[in-house]
Design goal:
globular, mainly alpha, single chain, 2 strands, about 0% strand, about 425 residues, 16 helices
Amino acid sequence: MYHPKETPPRHLALNPCDGTLYPDPNAVSHMTPQAPPTPPPPPRIAAIDAFRGFVMFLMLAEVLHLAAVSKAIPATDPTKAVWDFLARHQTHVEWAGCTLHDLIQPSFSFLVGVALPFSLASRASRGQKFVWSAFHALWRATLLVLLGVFLRSVGQPQTNWTFTDTLSQIGLGYFFLFLLGHAEERWQWLAFFAIVIGYWAVFATYQPDADLGIEQTGVKADWNHHPKGFAAHWDKNTNPAAAFDRWFLNQLPQAKPFAYNSGGYATLNFIPTLATMILGLIAGGRLRYPDGLKAKFWNLLGTGLCLVAMGIVLEAAGVCPIVKRIWTPTWVLFSGGWCYLILCAFYAVTDWSEWAAWTFPLKVIGANSILAYCLAHLIEPFVIGSYRTHLGQNVFQKFGTAYEPFVAGVAVLSTFWLILLWLYRKRIFIRI
């Protein structure tokens, strides 16, 4: 019971009948306002970790040198067809078309977009302001570009100012992706189609440099992959992106004047690569929807099938060829659709079916994807040399000369994974 000579607290009132206190409804407005609750960090999607690890495994698996094994095995070998199949899907197509190896870079870019909504939500849960998130995004974009330049400069006489590396391509478009991450999905789709259609229009209206010789294009006149008719607007090194590089890259210090990229890749690829990342941004946003697991699965599946079909139909209609090396708009649709389908498959197995334990080897790789990328580009010769130094120069020839590159690759790949496993168990993750 409350003592009648005392003054009741401001937010309580005295009941004159029994002398007890109760909340005063007229005093609620005088109470100290409560800060809105901080949103919880977003739940982790196992499919994203598994997909990222799968992509990085495919990239690391380049050390297996399956094409070299396929070439060395005689045609009479009963396993020749298997090695040929594996080699084909560990090699980029010459120009138009697609193999599994061609899907590595778009998958890496796509997953950057998928992860962004979760990253933004995580930063919001920690109370980080937009200006600091924007600064971090700009800083991350810059580091990705410079890291790509650094990796392409290893073993070169001077800095190799080129921006076709996967990391550089992502970095050039990342800040724009960050800004779109704060927009509604309809605006993200609008940006996507504006990029795809606008980039197509630039190539379609550009007059190909048909008079350029092999010294300026690196392509012979009798090359079997020259596109015909309207598709010639997307020919190798005679397109507007190649013309831009012949101007832009020569504004930077070069060991020798830049004339062409031997693979046909171009700096301006970052623009349609941004469209691929936007597709991932949309997918990541949908995975954060409160919809059920089944609804998310059908959403991913339907979007993936539609994108793949659109890419194939537009190529068949002669609108634009599917070419990864210059990231044509049809490639954005086709490869983006496959990224949706692969993510959908992982989502069905890991999150919907709750069978994710088998993805642990992939999670180990994906958890340190930037480091894995650097390992693949920097220390393969060192690892192979160390095995030969300590175990003998012929250690990899015990299974036959033809299989030597594959056996050496297994040793290198195992070493990479063990390094990443140690870091994973120590909870050491290299991030930008």
